[in-house]
Design a protein that fits this description.
Four copies of one chain form a homotetramer.
Chain A: H1 2-18, H2 25-32, H3 36-42, H4 46-62, H5 73-90, H6 92-99, H7 107-133, H8 142-161, H9 168-181
Helix pairs in contact in A: 1-2, 1-4, 1-6, 4-7, 5-6, 5-7, 5-8, 5-9, 6-8, 7-8, 8-9
Chain B binds a DNA duplex (21 and 21 nucleotides) through residues 3, 24-26, 34-41, 44-46.
Chain lengths: 187, 187, 187, 187
DNA sequence: GATGAATGAGACTTCATTCAT
DNA sequence: AATGAATGAAGTCTCATTCAT
């Protein structure tokens, strides 16, 4: 099954570089020096391998997420932010696949991406709710706020993945600072 | 030039519904009950009309943005957030086109979208910098923070556009609250 | 009927410049500043006008041909050669239409051109035969020789039409010299 | 590479029969009983294969041309005339492609054909000039005369290719006779 | 007479997928 | 397992021609 791995690996690289439509099955096989037909020994079709790439990528991020003991909701948030940002920095193709996914081609694809975002969201949201219950976090509309926090995080994730000299540690620090203390000068 | 407007209008709807690739020129014309050839009287090709749709959409958002007197950087931010969120609510297809644009097809397209995001970003960033200079906003890495704020805003924009019963006024309020005061319970 | 003439005239110019296929009906009308539909008030279709152009052109050449009293077959040849070469020089588009006609599109077209060549040929042939009967011209296969003479003439016609600084008088002289005396140095 | 040869061969036949425009890619493939897509595995497009056919055809003729020792310029002329006429008789499609080529479609095509004619021309011209230097050929304007000779030859080539019961040997003989001795009865 | 928007047949081309070897 | 030639559906685009105004 080495061949299958090769294909998946190369597909991941190339899909992230060229996007789903611009990449042909030929691109993948010829870049591996194998015949086009060989591809179909390992994957049903192009959508199939793309789906698998997405699933892999998403689960690779998910597996970095930690659920810490419920005493420390903010700590958990911080850890996870740093973890994922570091992953995006190490493997920017993951971030590109997730952020530049072309919607509306196949509902399956969209579900994978959206499922992933929902996972992140519920992580944030549950942290918030726990924080509120514990009296650490002020009252707010958790649905809205969790999306805001997620959005801020994802945007910074894109930047980190683009290698724009954004340092995950600093980014995480700034992100938490706003989230916790806001932007106003203290009086 | 009525026909041209019709085509643009219909293309906007359909692109936002089906995405660039799944939509064919035939889809557009048959949905208007006209011949395929007619399309080519008004647009060079499918990419051409898509580009025009993107430009329209982006400039429609831009024209909602206000630049207020520099005394009130935060007021300006709030106004703009509300304005754009309301636009996304009224015309969700605008948001969909911007947020679900398929990258890597044609650099021109990407530039339009990215140019738009840059515009938003520099608006946020300049507000922040002005706020800092005026002593209202605390010291922070404006590059990072402006992206965080933009990200939070965009994510909420997506939600509003999806009609998830998110109220632009409330969303704007919550967004500003986090941005200004953070999430911690005041001591 | 002025409009009809305009169209014919312009079509002649443009067909000779761009060829039958590369020239569109739009090219003709827009170059006259009139609407495309107007064309169809005067001509059934594109083939139709091309046919008419060809006929005009061919008859314009034919009308230059003289049939002199049968006593002077060679004189007649010379006169005709000069006449037609001069016409090609004055109106090179005539030559271009005749020489660069794209065969096999429509048998009608081909017949016009071939009919014209046949006319020229029989002129040459009859001169030859008369010359032979009169003892001026040596015995030869008139079918073959007339084609050779015609071919030589046509080739030089092309050159004259291309304006390659070929002078019709000189060309005619050389042509007759070869035809009459051949190329060998006299002994 | 058998398939490619088949396509080229069939294209040659069909182009010569129907001309460039009237022939579609479908005509070629369906006449071979293969799918249209197969064509595009071997050739970029219709222009591409036409170009290749032209090149082949032209070089097939060129390769029949001999350059004999410079002592015998007229012998060389005769040999070449016979050689090419025989080729035209054997493979009339070659002549048709060359003589009925539709100009002005694509400059590349025209260059191939014109380049070929130039080659023939310079062969004739250099023979003439050598002949003159050797005192065999009388003084004349070689530019003009070579074109006349070429024209005579090409016209006869057309006839031979049309299978009009023209015998290459006889044609060559007559052609040389006129060229050398002219048409006048010897006194 | 003139217009020009609209038509639609006809051709081209790409590429995911199949299948005999 | 692997090959790669072949397939054909799906889409793009052009332009001669029509027709209502």
């Amino acid at each position: 099954m080495k061949r299958r791995e090769e294909l998946l690996q190369r597909a991941r690289e190339l899909f992230s570089k060229k996007g789903f439509h611009s990449l042909t099955v030929s691109d993948i096989t010829s870049s591996l020096g194998i015949a086009r037909g060989t591809f179909y020994l390992y994957f049903e079709n192009k959508e199939n391998i793309y789906e698998e790439v997405l699933k892999e990528v998403v689960s690779e991020v998910s597996s970095r997420l930690k659920v810490l003991p419920s005493r420390e909701p903010l700590k958990q948030l911080e850890e996870n932010i740093k973890g994922v940002l570091n992953l995006f920095k190490e493997k920017p193709e993951i971030a590109k696949l997730i952020f530049y996914h072309p919607y509306k081609l196949n509902p399956k694809f969209d579900e994978i991406i959206e499922g992933f975002f929902k996972e992140l969201l519920s992580l944030v949201e549950s942290s918030l709710l726990r924080g509120m219950r514990m009296g650490i976090v002020r009252k707010c509309n958790a649905k809205i706020v969790s999306k805001a926090v997620l959005g801020a995080f994802l945007q910074l994730g894109k930047e980190v993945a683009q290698g724009n000299s954004f340092n995950p540690e600093e980014v995480a620090k700034e992100l938490l600072n706003i989230a916790l203390y806001g932007l106003l000068e203290e009086k």
